[in-house]
From TrEMBL, chains A, B:
InterPro entries: HTH_MarR-typ, MarR/SlyA-like, WH-like_DNA-bd_sf, WH_DNA-bd_sf. Keywords: DNA-binding. PANTHER family: HTH-TYPE TRANSCRIPTIONAL REPRESSOR YETL, TRANSCRIPTIONAL REGULATOR, MARR FAMILY. One of its GO terms (molecular function) is DNA binding. The keyword DNA-binding applies. This is DNA-binding MarR family transcriptional regulator. Pfam families: MarR (PF01047). The keyword Heme does not apply.
DNA sequence: GGCAATTGCTTCAGGTCTCAACGAATGTCT
DNA sequence: AGACATTCGTTGAGACCTGAAGCAATTGCC
């Protein structure tokens, strides 16, 4: 939790960025551990799996693995493993394209579709519950302001793409 | 990145919590991937290691592994491995307490202290850089509002401690 | 004292994650 | 056509991460 403490001796107003960053990390870690635990105990799934399925859910025709990789911000190598496990239990299927035999497309099975819908519902309830004490107006402002942070970070990534 | 898209068809103002959560995840992931990469290329370290060292840095007398575990929000089993690796390259040392031979205390070596100071400096610069486009007033408000989210989440964890 | 519960750390199995190296298919350029 | 480069996915090593089971030391209770 308290990587936060690194900055505790910061002088008034200085190191704002650092403090915010540590709080961002702590908050996200706290919440995602809770979400992970519930996904695991109630659905036997993991967060990366849920994330991947969410992408496929909105694309009836499926997605190529590379596309999945960039949308989930997960490396190629990792997508391979995720897809293998999900295919193994019948949630998704994987097929090679005829036109270009390098590419593989993954998409939800019917079973996977139903399975995901259940999880997505529960997931949304959990998040609402976790944020229950926060004023709706604050939520809205947070969304916008976090957007600024994300934009800023994106502009300052090490030059290359 | 765009787990965010799961919520794209949300009706005006509804699903605010979900959208915020997804943005929180995306922002943190984006930034921590960048930080990880730089830690790795410039210092040969990882983020969890940095986190752990940060805790030890502020406690001259060291910390017991259990304390490290709860402060870094890392499981016990994981702390064992982290500490082993850090001890192997001389950054920290581990010793058993005489009073209670169950407990192990880890603390920074002199070498580790210097090493960490260099990283901490660089780390702070990186974060400032990544957040450079965000207005200081916004940073301040974000810090406070994120605090509310964290508090709320903490209150709603599955009952047990 | 004696013995069960508790505490503190380690070990283990399985999944996630990164980077780097590889191999196959396709594209490009001459 | 032939050679080179690029794209896409897989593989592999190493670290991280989790929950659960295991083991040792200590505490608590009779």
């Amino acid at each position: 939790m308290d990587l936060e403490l690194v900055a505790s001796d910061a002088q008034e107003g200085k190191k704002q960025e650092l403090k915010l960053w540590l709080r961002l990390l702590a908050t996200t870690k706290l919440m995602s551990q809770e979400v992970r635990r519930r996904l695991r105990t109630e659905f036997g799934a993991t967060l990366p799996q849920f994330d991947l399925l969410a992408q496929l859910y909105r694309e009836k025709d499926g997605l190529r693995l590379g596309e999945l990789s960039s949308r989930t911000m997960v490396t190629n190598g990792n997508v391979t493993g995720l897809v293998e496990r999900l295919e193994a239990d019948g949630t998704i299927i994987r097929e090679r394209l005829e036109d270009d035999k390098r590419v593989t497309v993954a998409r939800l099975t019917e079973k996977g579709r139903t399975y995901f819908e259940g999880m997505a519902d529960a997931h949304e309830r959990w998040i609402k519950e976790l944020m229950a004490e926060v004023d709706p107006a604050v939520l809205k402002r947070l969304l916008a302001e976090l957007g600024q942070v994300k934009e800023s970070a994106q502009k300052h990534l090490s030059e290359e793409d």
